[in-house]
Task: inverse folding
């Protein structure tokens, strides 16, 4: 089958444009990954503080001050509860600020991955299956990279949702808040292997990204 020179040049330009979009996407993911890690690290002491405050509040609600030397201060228990709840509100507010950062990371990754997938879908016929499956020592295939990007996007989406649900706390369920630090640690342990996906993928595409 004869393919004229203009058509070959067009296919090459389209393929090159997709490669550039992939490089920009991986560059963005690397930056977003750094921001995600920082936000997660900053969440940990806040989650621990929230657990400690809930434990203090739970103890405060159970104690009977009438049978103690503090019974001379009838409003003491109520004031302590108020201060503890206020401290919990401040801590939750700070945690929500960190969650906003995680949400921005999730949205940014989804945007960049979605843009690359759109470019591929629009030009898929011009690029062709054989070209998309082609690998080299310096570059994974387009198909591999698109699959990795979708996995990464799904990972950020799921991790954000799991943390958001975990932080939907209520004062009438203090036992759950008290165990929040442990639940957060278990969630982090599960996410470590998934986070490795990002690190591994960036390693796999390191030569591809450098081959501008």
Result:
């Amino acid at each position: 089958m004869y393919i004229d020179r203009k058509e070959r040049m067009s296919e090459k330009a389209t393929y090159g444009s997709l490669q550039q979009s992939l490089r920009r996407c991986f560059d963005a993911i690397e930056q977003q990954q750094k921001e995600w890690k920082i936000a997660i690290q900053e969440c940990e002491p806040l989650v621990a503080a929230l657990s400690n405050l809930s434990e203090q509040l739970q103890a405060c609600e159970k104690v009977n001050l009438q049978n103690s030397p503090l019974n001379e201060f009838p409003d003491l228990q109520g004031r302590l509860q108020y201060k503890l709840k206020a401290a919990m509100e401040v801590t939750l507010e700070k945690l929500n600020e960190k969650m906003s950062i995680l949400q921005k990371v999730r949205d940014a990754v989804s945007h960049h991955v979605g843009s690359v997938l759109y470019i591929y879908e629009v030009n898929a016929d011009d690029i062709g299956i054989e070209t998309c499956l082609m690998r080299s020592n310096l570059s994974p295939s387009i198909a591999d990279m698109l699959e990795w990007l979708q996995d990464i996007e799904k990972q950020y989406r799921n991790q954000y949702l799991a943390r958001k649900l975990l932080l939907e706390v209520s004062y009438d369920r203090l036992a759950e808040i008290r165990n929040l630090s442990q639940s957060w640690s278990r969630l982090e342990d599960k996410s470590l292997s998934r986070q490795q996906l990002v690190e591994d993928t960036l390693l796999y595409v390191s030569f591809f990204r450098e081959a501008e």
